[in-house]
Design brief:
Elements: H1 11-26, E1 29-35, E2 48-53, H2 59-67, E3 85-90, E4 94-98, H3 109-125, E5 129-137, H4 144-156, E6 160-165, H5 172-186, E7 197-198, H6 207-215
GO molecular function: GTP binding; metal ion binding
Cofactor: Mg(2+)
InterPro entries: G_ENGB_dom, GTP-bd, GTP-bd_ribosome_bio_YsxC, P-loop_NTPase
Length: 228
């Protein structure tokens, strides 16, 4: 069972968080580092949010939609083969980490095993990592590789939030059924955040809510007074 009990914010608090998210993601966001090995990771500075998902789940499109840029994150020309962690500086307040896609059917076995080894070591050993955004394609069934990653995140004791992508492709009834199915799965994982967010990079569905959630994990703006 999930350990999270999160009271629903008031309408006023929801609006405040949405505006904070809008301002954060309207600011500068730039690629600053790519690491193919753990010893190449950049120095620890601000809080980090990692994005994970199967190859072709729409991870690059979601990062681009979040930041309002067309080509900040780019999909690999050979899905499932890249092993690089890409780091993006969001206004010196938050680092977005684009993780390599997993579960690509044509990837060699040693590439898949190497992915899990490197990713687990990163997830377990990065103290500034605040949350993993785990993307699932709303149009297709949950794969064995998705379940394996959820178990890996449990083992690494890293909070993860499931985000359904490409939700504009489903009608309301099947979309709600998918959300309920995934919510039930999340309740089986102690590291899972209970809320399942519905998104579409095409229509912008869910982007304000996702921005708001991530802004709550970022450093405060430089001009914001720190309360003691």
């Amino acid at each position: 069972m999930s350990e999270f009990v999160t009271p629903a914010p008031s309408p006023e608090e929801q609006e405040r968080l949405r505006e904070a998210g809008r301002l954060l993601f309207a600011g500068p966001c730039d690629f600053f580092f790519g690491a193919q090995k753990l010893e190449q990771l950049p120095p620890i500075t601000v809080p980090e949010i990692a994005f994970a998902g199967r190859s072709n789940v729409g991870k690059s499109s979601l990062i681009n939609a979040l930041t309002g840029r067309k080509a900040l994150a780019r999909a690999s020309s050979e899905p499932g083969r890249t092993k690089q962690l890409n780091f993006f500086n969001l206004g010196d307040r938050l680092t977005l980490v684009d993780m390599p896609g997993y579960g690509y059917a044509k990837a060699a076995k040693d590439v898949k095993e190497d992915w899990q080894g490197m990713m687990f070591a990163y997830l377990r050993g990065r103290p500034t990592l605040q949350r993993v955004i785990l993307l699932l394609d709303s149009r297709i069934e949950i794969k064995a590789s998705d379940r394996e990653i959820m178990t890996l995140l449990d083992r690494a004791a890293v909070t993860f939030e499931i985000v359904l992508t490409k939700c504009d492709a489903l009608k309301p009834s099947p979309l709600e059924a998918k959300r309920a199915q995934v919510a039930d799965l999340a309740r089986q994982h102690p590291a899972a955040y209970p809320e399942i967010l519905l998104t579409s990079s095409e229509s912008g569905l869910g982007m304000p809510e996702l921005r708001a959630g991530l802004a709550s994990l970022a450093l405060p703006p430089a001009d914001e007074p720190v309360l003691s």
